Amino acid sequence: MNRETFGAIDIGSNAIRLLIDYVEQYDDGRTEYKKAAFVRVPIRLGDDVFLRGHIGNDRAEALCDAMQGFAALLRAYGVRDYRACATSAMREAANGRDILERVRLRSGITVETISGTEEADTIFAAGGLKELLDRSKTYLYVDVGGGSTEIVVYASGEKAAAESFRLGTVRILSHATDPAEWSRFEGWLAQVAALHNPTAVIGSGGNINKVHKLLEKKSRESIRTKELTTLYDRLRVLSVEERMEQFYLNQSRAEVIVPALGIFTDVTRICRIATVCVPRQGLADGIIRLLYRQYNPQYR
């Protein structure tokens, strides 16, 4: 058995995350990814960007502090390699390049700002999806983040279409969404429904993962749309404090889970989809798998 250690940093609009995995390759050809460390810091870069167009100094400092800590953990675990990616908030921040240069100087970590399409492709690379895909059916892969929502159509096991929308949980909470973007979102979904007739959603993101746990689903068990809608209706009439008390959520999750569920229920309603599969994989998982394959191209 051969073991290597890889790391990934995901700088999102709601939170930043560090994932470190041990990747074990066995003589029989099996490859297993085992979590060594995971750290999530809810810095909420999107709160600044979606309202004011730039990242303020307080959040920039918090980001630099967190990234210095992440750099220390990467060194302590002796990772072979790592990659750091920023998504929607950093893409839109007028001072995004300056902030990332400050991060590099303070922590030594170079961060790439990636597109919505690359974000969706990287999450797909995390794996766990191929086992869910029936080549005779069409699926919508839906990733709801803090600043954007990525949707990919998979038909006959292949990507048939993809689109990124500037609709995300932090953006919604900041009242920074454009009605025209909602119309584009709904119109695109209606076209997809008519053209591809998708039968299930594959849900991605911290909020749908939390919903899967709240509904006490087993690892590969799907969520029925009716269950999703019922939970959404229960949560959205509660205050943030009531969600925290009744569902044992931390404050950050209690705030963003409702707008996330709103997006998922919109997708299932417009496309008349009855089930949501949740493989519980994210951008950081995809980054690590792509890194491992880069160093070990024989294992794909």
Automatic annotation (TrEMBL):
Gene3D superfamilies attached to this UniProt entry: 3.30.420.40, Exopolyphosphatase. Domain 2
SUPFAM superfamilies tied to this protein: Actin-like ATPase domain (SSF53067)
GO molecular function terms attached to this record: pyrophosphatase activity
CDD domains from the UniProt entry: ASKHA_NBD_PPX_GppA
Domain named Ppx/GppA phosphatase N-terminal: residues: 43-288
Pfam families documented for this protein: Ppx-GppA (PF02541)
InterPro entries, per database record: ATPase_NBD, GppA/Ppx_hydrolase, Ppx_GppA_N
UniProt name for this protein: Ppx/GppA phosphatase N-terminal domain-containing protein
Source organism of the structure: Candidatus Alistipes intestinigallinarum
